[in-house]
Design a protein that fits this description.
Strand content: 15-25%
Distance between the termini: 21 Å
Number of helices: 4
Radius of gyration: 14 Å
Shape: globular
Structural class: alpha/beta
Number of strands: 7
Strand order of the largest sheet: 3-2-4-1-5-6-7
Order of helices and strands: EHEHEHEHEEE
């Protein structure tokens, strides 16, 4: 099992007056996720079984751009439970049934909750926008943050 947790990228307007359902990726957000996907493709040679994303526009756009840059041409599936209201114990089995190597795109705090559940720890480090955190065989493996040259160890308390 290998799970890539990818946080949605930067949005155009994140003011409180704009709902999450109306937020879409900014130019900078699009550039960041494209660069991240390129870096993953060149260093990991990824082969994903499925992309699962929150239905929010920024998450879907992030998933589509990342999929394109990692040469993934399969299904990008939306899962409304990833908007943060369902417990990770409900979400995890649904995700893990989708394949051995999956990408999950959502926002915080849903990603950190899911990450903590998958590694069996009480907490998981919250991701920056466009950060990818990788869990291999239920163990924290590595993360790649925007602007960093290479991947870092994923440290979990």
């Amino acid at each position: 099992m290998e799970v890539y947790l990818l946080r949605s990228s930067l949005v155009v307007d994140d003011s409180p007056s704009v709902t999450e359902g109306q937020r879409f990726l900014s130019l900078e957000g699009r550039q960041i996720v494209c660069a991240l996907g390129n870096k993953i493709r060149l260093t990991e040679e990824p082969s994903f079984d499925r992309f699962i994303t929150s239905p929010l526009p920024a998450a879907v756009q992030t998933a589509e751009l990342f999929a394109d840059r990692t040469d993934y041409v399969g299904v990008i599936e939306t899962l409304p439970l990833l908007t943060g209201e369902a417990p990770p114990a409900v979400i995890a089995p649904l995700l893990l049934a989708r394949g051995e190597r999956i990408v999950v795109v959502a926002d915080e705090p849903a990603l950190a909750s899911l990450g903590a559940f998958l590694v069996g720890r009480p907490t998981f480090p919250p991701a920056l926008h466009s950060q990818v955190s990788v869990i291999k065989d239920r163990q924290p493996a590595w993360c790649l943050r925007p602007g960093e040259l290479g991947r870092q160890l994923l440290l979990v308390a």
